[in-house]
Amino acid sequence: MNPISSSTAHCCHRWLRWLRRIRESVTLFSLLVLFPTLAAAQTASPFDTGFNALQNLFTGTIARVASLIAIVIGGYSFAHGEPGAKRTLAGVVAGTGIAVLAANVLSWLWGV
């Protein structure tokens, strides 16, 4: 083998080794960038959906139905002159406000 071809082969071998290192580095960098992104894709807890459903149920449907029943009963007691009916209606109004607006008050106070 003449010295020129040996030098060329050595240069090609060095070049291929450099390309292999670059390819490994790019692969490693891609994995390091891609996997944290995939891991961060799920930002919510698996319990969040269930708890949000319960929150909507208790501060929505159940609170409105219970408030309606309490207002009707308080109205009947006020209409029939029961003692303490005004106090009962005031408690119903306060309880209704707390039950229906609980989520809004929590987010207003603590940003929950």
UniProtKB/TrEMBL annotation:
<feature type="transmembrane region" description="Helical">
    <location>
        <begin position="57"/>
        <end position="76"/>
    </location>
</feature>
<keyword id="KW-0812">Transmembrane</keyword>
<dbReference type="InterPro" id="IPR007039">
    <property type="entry name" value="TrbC/VirB2"/>
</dbReference>
<protein>
    <recommendedName>
        <fullName>Conjugal transfer protein TrbC</fullName>
    </recommendedName>
</protein>
<dbReference type="Pfam" id="PF04956">
    <property type="entry name" value="TrbC"/>
</dbReference>
<keyword id="KW-0472">Membrane</keyword>
<keyword id="KW-1133">Transmembrane helix</keyword>
<keyword id="KW-0732">Signal</keyword>
<feature type="signal peptide">
    <location>
        <begin position="1"/>
        <end position="39"/>
    </location>
</feature>
<feature type="transmembrane region" description="Helical">
    <location>
        <begin position="88"/>
        <end position="110"/>
    </location>
</feature>
